[in-house]
Each structure stands twice: as C-alpha cells, then as structure tokens.
Amino acid sequence: MRWYVRSAEAGDKASMFAVACWYRDGFGGPVDLVQTFRWYLAMLNVGSGDGIHYRRFEAVSDIDVMVDGNLAVLRYPSLIDIAVRGQEAGLLECWHLDCYRRERDGGLWRVRWSQATSIDHP
After folding, report:
1. Fewer CB within 10 Å of terminal CB in the chain, N or C?
2. Closest to 100 (Cα-Cα) out of 57, 66, 58
3. 41-50, 52-61, 77-86: lowest mean pLDDT where?
4. What SS3 class is residue 95?
5. Model confidence over 57-88: pLDDT tens digits?
6. Residue 46: enclosing H or E segment and its boundaries?
C-alpha cells in the first residue's frame, strides 16, 4: 500500500481511489474513515472528467466522526470552489453532514446521504 500512497500523494487519481477504498475496507490495516474521506476529497480536487471540477474541497477543521454499529456520521466545515462545465461558481463555506452505512457486519462502508449547507456570515 505504501507505493500507492506515494503515487496518490504525487497526484495520481487512480491511486487516490485505491488508497481510499483500502482505508474504507480495512485492507492491510484497520478501517479508517477519516483517511478514506481524505483521499476521496483529494481525488475530487484532481477532477473527474464529467465536467465537474472541484478546484478546492477541504475540511477547514477536524472531522467529527460518530460510529454506532453499522452507521457512521461525519460532520465538518469545508471550503468548496467548484467549476461546472467551465462556469465559475466562487468559493463557498459549508457545513457537511455525511452518513455512511455498512452493507452488512464487516462489509463495505457506503455513503447513503450527504448534505452541504452554506454558511452565511452577516
């Protein structure tokens, strides 16, 4: 896994995806949802080829994680700068709430719901 992490750190999107999946599944070590999420966000920053490009998507503080059985909830503030098919959107500050559910005991974690809410400063 070390070589994939190095390749991911160098910006290779396929390696980022592999590392995220390995952390998600506990391949070669314990399940680590924070690292899973870290590499998922890094992959978004590279772009996906579908006309949606996250130029910036980063948690701006610690990610709160609660796990209870087969349910995990992540909550964190983030900064997002997204371009959709060449149109500029600008920088957004948001609160995110992501819910993951394990398919079965010991199975894969899958995102079931994700919500971003804009933070407005008066």
Report:
1. C
2. 66
3. 41-50
4. strand
5. 888 888 899 999 889 999 999 988 877 666 67
6. helix 33-46
